[in-house]
Amino acid sequence: MRRTTIAAALASTIVVAMLTGACGSGSQKASTAPATTTTVDLRPPADLPGVQTFSNLTQNHVRGTVNYPQTPPVGGDHAPIWQNCGFYSKPIVTEQGVHSMEHGAVWITYAPDLPADQVAVLRDLAHSQTYVLVSPFPGLPAPVVASAWGVQLGLLSATDAELARFVKYYRNGPQTKEPGASCSGASGSPE
Length: 191
What we know:
- There is one protein chain.
- This protein is of the alpha/beta class.
- Helices cover 27% and strands 13% of the residues.
- The protein has four helices and six strands.
- The chain has helices at 2-20, 94-102, 116-128, 161-170, and strands at 52-53, 86-87, 106-110, 132-136, 144-148, 151-155.
- The protein has a six-stranded mixed β-sheet, sandwiched between helices.
- The longest helix is centred in the first third of the chain and has 19 residues, at 2-20.
């Protein structure tokens, strides 16, 4: 009987430790533990060419600036607080945008000099759906870049039909690391 009680107490302790270590637990410390990796099929639908995939991305909460290997980032260590999804006309904190992608957001970044009519298309897209984050980002490799955790697509225009298909497939898609996590109630005031 005593072994059963000890085993049950140990199991409860492990569950509590797992839950308090989850995103949003309030912990502000950077984790030094390796990121957990889950095998997820990140291949895009066959009719969505040009999507790049990235793997072995860490998921630690850290303070300060992170040097990401991609511009814009597609995942990795990030701020403990996420960016509220929506449209922003000014750049956001990169590490908060990465956290939003962990929650299932598609982060659409655009060149600061993108024509106003194309920015309006992106604003409408952000206003019409949840889990879409839009902001300018200097130094992009294309005028518009759509990113979700571990995947990215560069586009020449905000009106490119591939953008809508990327958002449809990857917004809370199979690559989402924390399905059901919030994309509101944190940092930023969308416009």
